[in-house]
Every structure is written in structure tokens, then in C-alpha cells.
Amino acid sequence: MSDRMELTAEVRTDVGKGASRRLRRNADLVPGVVYGAGKEAVSITIPHKDLHKASESESFFSQILTLKTGSDSEPVILKDLQRHPARDRLMHADFFRIRMDQKISVEIPLHFLNEDNCVGVKQEGGVVSRTMTSVEINCLPADLPEYIEIDVAALSLGSALHLSDIVLPEGVEIPALALGDDYDNVVVSVQAVRATVDDVEADAAGAAPEEGNAEAADGESNEAGDDS
């Protein structure tokens, strides 16, 4: 696991929607809350520029973070990050305290390897179709991976990899698999390339008789009719 990302926050006592709006508008702060580990929830604020910069990293959403408030610091994971629907602004952040002796559930990104060189693409002309880009896992904090790699090199046209096919690091589980085969969802597959509209029109044009030939055919048909 890489070095933990750190965020510095301040405890806030002014809560509510009106207070949150003032914090965003007047101080460029993002309101948030930290909870869990048997402790009371604490309302906090984080400078927008710091939180925005952290959110540009993939690992921010799936790794253990160090949240510093004054002289205290504690390990947390991000549970929710609310964004403005129309602007590049962060609106609220929820952080969950963790204990190193208790398992946590985290959504982990999937990294796909050898997509361009897999059998179904290179030899059979298909395309890779990703059904999932992340997966929820359970593990102890010390076993938390940054991401999970899936090698699709051997995937042929029409075949797929499911959740149960993922090679997991030691100590990591996919809770969905404990629910039965119906939850063993497809993660990635190789499918045939669909014909585009242009391809269909080109094929139709190629199949249609040329104008001159069509007229000649009509003439021959009419002459045959006159003879009868």
C-alpha cells in the first residue's frame, strides 16, 4: 500500500443548510462529517482547493486517508462525496473512521490489462466491453489494495469473465459472491463489432441494381408482358 494521503480539516459548530451555504460561498470551505469506530459524529470543514485536488486521484476514493483535525489525526475512508450538478464544485464529504482490527467494505477500481492484445480482439476482430469498472470488497484495512488487475489476454470472442474469475489478493473477499450464483455478474467480455449505420447503407447501396440496369430490367419485363 502506498503512503496515506492526508487532509487537514477543522471542527465546526455552525451546522445546518444555511451555515453550509455560507461556508461554501464566503470561505470556500467544504462542509463534511466524520463518523464511525464507536465515536460520536463530528462536523468538519475542509478547504475546497485541498479536497478538489485530492479528488483528482483515483486512490482518494478507495484508500485509507489520514484526516487531521488540530493536533489529532485518525485513519478514515471516504464514504460519500457530493458534487454540484452543474459546476465543478464539491458540496459535502462523508468520512468513516476505521479500526485496523475490523474489516471494511470499499469500492475498489478495476484495471484491465492486455485489452488490445487479447485473443478476441487481435485475432477475432471483437471489442472489449467492460460491464464493471469497480467492485466492492471486504478486507482488513492493512490488506486494502489500491486497485485490482484483470488480465483479459486469453479472452476470446463471445467469452466473458465474471466476479468469481477475479484473482483477489490474500485477505480480500467480494461479498456479492456469498449471495449466490445470481450475483456472479459479468465483469468484462469480448463482443462482435456491431455494424454502423454507414455500413448498413453502404451494403444496401451495393445490393441495389444500378439505375440503367433497373430500367432495362423493367423494359424486358414489359416486353415479356406484351408478348403474352
List the helices and strands and how they pair.
Elements: E1 5-11, H1 17-27, E2 29-36, E3 39-47, H2 48-55, E4 65-69, E5 72-83, E6 90-97, E7 104-113, H3 119-122, E8 127-130, E9 134-139, E10 148-151, E11 160-162, E12 186-191, H4 197-207, H5 211-227
Description:
By secondary structure, the protein is of the alpha+beta class. It has three domains: 5-97, Ribosomal Protein L25, Chain P; 104-191, RNA Polymerase Alpha Subunit, Chain A, domain 2 (Beta Complex); 197-227. Helices cover 22% and strands 36% of the residues. It has five helices and twelve strands. The protein has helices at residues 17-27, 48-55, 119-122, 197-207, 211-227, and strands spanning 5-11, 29-36, 39-47, 65-69, 72-83, 90-97, 104-113, 127-130, 134-139, 148-151, 160-162, 186-191. The strands form three sheets. A six-stranded mixed barrel has the order 1-3-2-6-5-4. It is elongated and about 70 Å long. The protein starts with a strand and ends with a helix. The model has no long low-confidence stretch (mean pLDDT 87).
